[in-house]
Amino acid sequence: MIEIDGGILEGGGQLLRVSVALAATLNTSVKVTNIRAKRKPPGLKPQHIAALKAISLISNGKLENAYQGSSEITFHPSKLVGGTFNINIGTAGAISLVLQALIPVTLFASRKVNLTIKGGTNVKWSPPMDYFENVHIPIIKQLDAEVSVETVRRGCYPKGGGIVHAIIKPVEALKPLVLSERGEVEKINGIVFCEKLPKHIAEREKRSAENKLSEEGYDAEISVKTGNTSFSPCTGIVLWALTENKCILGSDSLGEKGKPAEKVGEEAAKQLIDELKSNATVDIYMGDQILLYLALASGESEVLVREVTLHAKTQIYILEKILKAKFEVKNENGLKRIHVKGIGFTR
Asked: Considering 48, 76, 136, 311, which one is annotated as catalytic?
């Protein structure tokens, strides 16, 4: 049995999700203690329980102590199966974080997996679904992952209620990914969303982002999506840049009560400008999200990031411990070059 201390490094939900996802993929039991020890309050929250139960269901597993507030779980997986699964987080917990746990597992299921997940699509401290659809998914497709994701309804804090459909087709193996040079920026796209709020808020966010990008010589095509289907009012922006070498770098900013729309747009634009000025080949968010796929892939992969975040360091620790994948991080012209020797996992 693999034993993981969930309180080390980042000390949040990431350690738990990655550990259980890898255990299911490898068909190996795992025990995770000190769950989310560095969060207040610590222990399991509904979104973590939803992800664990979904992984257990897909792997015909046995899950112990998965209740709200629990600081320790044990998971015994079995054979990965395909099929249709409905997952309800029950809160505005992030759907994207549940998908981060489920996609690596379902890529190696016995047949196609159809997921319907209810929860939060645009919430604090997690990737917005717009980022997930336009940055995360296109990048992992470069490893031959056959995944499609569609946001059917937005769900925001505090009521949640968002709906996302995902289809994952199994693969025999993932191929490596080498993004060693960014190349010229070909275009910048974006989405401003606005639910149950005046449209002028979205227009101001859009204009602010465009103006900030224009100051640095970048043009952007930013679409505005307004609606009235979310259970809670919300707004925000996601931007992403595409380059000649198939790099995709993203940024985002979420609106809050009392936060001017102009600041929302400017924040996202500034984040993206920082990424582009650095010449990184993946942004700091994908700098940790991509690592699990690279560790499972066949062959050697490489990406450039402007910063190895604590989340990325946590990913590297857990992937080396469980998968025995080999990572090397080198300083290079103000960037960090992450080299990964994958284990060549096959279904």
From this structure: 311
